Amino acid sequence: MCRKQAACHLRQDKAAAIFESGRMVSNMNICNNLRAINLVREIGLSVNLMNRSMERLASGLRINRASDDPAGLVISEQMRSRIASLNQEIENTTVTLNKYRTADSAALQLRHSLTELRSYAVAAANSGANDAAVRQAYQTAAENMVSSYNSLIETTSFGNQKLLDGSEGSVAEIEKLNDLDFSDPESIEQAITEIDQKAEQLDSTLISLGSKQKNELERNLSTMRIEVQNLAAAESQIRDTDFVSEYAAFMRNSLMLQAGVALMAHANLPSYTVLSLLNSD
Q: What pTM was computed for the model?
């Protein structure tokens, strides 16, 4: 057999070997490297998942856009709206409660003044030990205290709102004291009667103010704060990032990305194997 014929037979044998290799291993081709295409797709998926995990870890939120969880986003926003409304109601109730506490404090001070006035009246009624100078001293003290009592009713306010004079926006209407006369036993008795009447009215006012604070304002405030706490916990479960699981997902996708990039270097080996058959002698 001549050399030319031998070379021809060798080329035929190589072509048959390439055909058999391609038939036994279906992905050994050059034009379309399916292994590389799949690796590129997996690498892109790993990059997208890593970016999403980094966004969640950086923001602290599991839901950063509607596409993350449409239903969860809507529910979360509704909860946030309710929480914002409750916080404003809490602020309003707190202001109202402070207003009542201011009135309560002033009314209690008025009650103490009545108690002291009654003591002056009883002391002034002791005709066996008191002379004119002593009675005058009690009279002067009573007049000063009545003036302070009435002034406190007029001036007690919360911001620009009067609280105790019965005007619009006030929380109580407390009657002023009339002038008290400690000059003789009969007038002193009348003064004590008026003081007792005012004390009885003031006690009723204190009960009303205290009941309003305790049974309505403070109870409502506590209820709203509990509701805010529960809503915030529920909203957190829906929207906040679970850092442990999200970081684990980030590390998993990072490892998958590194493995995919490393495998890209070997994705063309089947093509090189085919080409090596063509290049061999």
A: 0.68
> What secondary structure, in 3-state letters, does 131-200 show?
CHHHHHHHHHHHHHHHHHHHHHHHHCEECCEECCECCCCCCCECCCCCCCCCCCHHHHHHHHHHHHHHHH
Amino acid at 164: L
222-260 in b/e form (b: 16+ CB < 10 A) is: eebeeebeebeeebeeebebeeeebeebbeebbebbeeb
Tokens encoding 194: 């008026």
Cβ–Cβ < 8 Å for 149, 110: yes
Secondary structure (3-state) at 61: strand
**Alpha carbons 208 and 205: distance in angstroms, whole number:** 5
- List C-alpha distances in Å: 4 to 1, 7, 12, 278: 8, 5, 13, 19
Least confident of 53-57, 75-79, 83-87, 217-221: 53-57
pLDDT tens-place string over residues 16-47: 554 444 444 444 555 556 666 776 777 778 77
